[in-house]
Design goal:
With 388 residues, this protein is of the alpha/beta class. The chain has 2 domains: 140 residues, Aspartate Aminotransferase, domain 1; 239 residues, Type I PLP-dependent aspartate aminotransferase-like (Major domain) (Aspartate Aminotransferase, domain 2). It is built from 15 helices and 13 strands. The chain is globular. It binds 4'-deoxy-4'-aminopyridoxal-5'-phosphate (PMP) and glutamine. The site of 4'-deoxy-4'-aminopyridoxal-5'-phosphate has 14 residues, from helix 6.
Length: 388
Amino acid sequence: MKSANSLMSGLGTTVFEVMSALAREHQSVNLGQGFPDDKGPQEVRAAAADYLMNGHNQYPPMMGIPELRQAVAEHAKRFQGLDIDWQSEVLVTSGATEALGDCLFGLIEPGDEVVLIEPLYDSYLPMVRRAGGIPKLVRLEPPTWSLPREELAAAFSDRTKLILFNTPMNPCSKVFDRDELDFIAGLCLKHDAYAVCDEVYEHIIFDDRRHVSIMTLPDMRARTVRIGSAGKGFSLTGWKVGYITAAAELMKTIAKTHQFMTFTTPPNLQWGAATGLRLADDYYSTLASDMQRKRDRLAIALAEIGFDVLPAHGTYFVTTDFRPLGFNGTDDDFCRHITVEAGVTAVPVSAFYDEPVRAPRHFARFCFCKHDATLDSAIERLGRHFRK
Ligand code: PMP
Ligand code: GLN
C-alpha cells in the first residue's frame, strides 16, 4: 500500500498525551499536561448545561453564535481597548488548536517563511510545515528568556509571511513586554509580515504585569491575528472553544479554512463561553491572583527541595532546573524517573524544541493550576524522594 503523508506519519505522540498516560499508569500526581483541578465558574457551566437541555442543538452559524462573537468583541474592548466588528472580525473555533490550524493553513503559501520562537508550543511546527511554510527559528535563552533582537531581525526577510508567537508563553512563562512587542511589530511592518499571536493565557499573568496584545500597537491592527481560548479563561480545557480576532480582509480566508476543518463548534459550549467572557472584572483578577498564589506555593516548595526554579510571569507553568538535585540524565529521563519513583509527573522542556537533541536537556515543567491539596501531595512526594 502507498504510504501516508510522511511528515505526519513521522511525528511522535504529543508529550502531553505520553506523560498523562504514564501518570495514569503509575497513579502519580499529574503536574505534566496543563489542566486545572478546578471545575470552572459555576455560571459558565450552568449556562452551557441549560442551553444543552433547552437551546438549539443543531448546526450553529459557521462563524459562531452571535452572542459569543459579540462577547469576544466586547471583551477585546474591555481589556485591550480594541474596536472589533463582531460580524466580520470574530470567528469561533474548536479550541485555540483549530484556530492555529485555520490561520496557518489560511495564510501560508508553500515556500513562505514563518518566524517562530523557541521553546514553542508543540502543535506549531508540524502545522507550519504541513502548510508548506519554512520555519525560521529563533531561540530564547534561560533564565531570562529575553528576546534576542539581532537574531530575530536576521530571521525576518521579505520572504517572511508571518511570525507566530505566544504571550504569556508556554512553557517558559515569559510575558513579552511592550518594548519587545514594539520590536516585533517593527519587523512585521518593515517586511510586510503578519503577526499571529497565541494569547490563550492573556488572563493568567502575575505580579501586576498587564497583557498587551500586539494588535493594539500602531499600524498592527490590520496585520495581527489574535487567538484566545475558553479553556484557559474559564479553566475548562476540555471544552475546546477558541476564538480568532482579525481584520475582515484576513478573516475571510481564515474562515474559509475553518469551514472545511470543523465548520462549527458545539452551540451550548459557545453559549457558556459567551457567559464567561461577560463575567465581571473581579472574576479575571481573582483568576490571576489565585494562580499566582498557586505558583508561589509550588515554586517555593520546589526550591526548598533543591530545584533551581526559574521565574514564572504568567501561564500555568513553572520551569525548573533539576541538576542541583544531582540527577545526571536527560529531561525525558528525569520526568519518567519522578513519575515512576516519586509518583509525580512533569513535562520535559526539550519537547518544546524543533530538535530535542539540540535543546537544553535539564529543565522540567511543572503545572500549578491545581488544588492546594494536589500541589501539597506532589511536594510531599518529591520531598520524600529527593531527601532520602
Ligand atoms: N496554545 C497554547 C500556548 C497552549 O498552551 C494551548 C493548550 N493548552 C493551546 C494553544 C491550545 O488550546 P485549546 O485547548 O483551546 O485548543
Ligand atoms: N496546553 C497544555 C499544556 O501545555 C496541553 C494541551 C494538550 O494536551 N494538547 O500542557
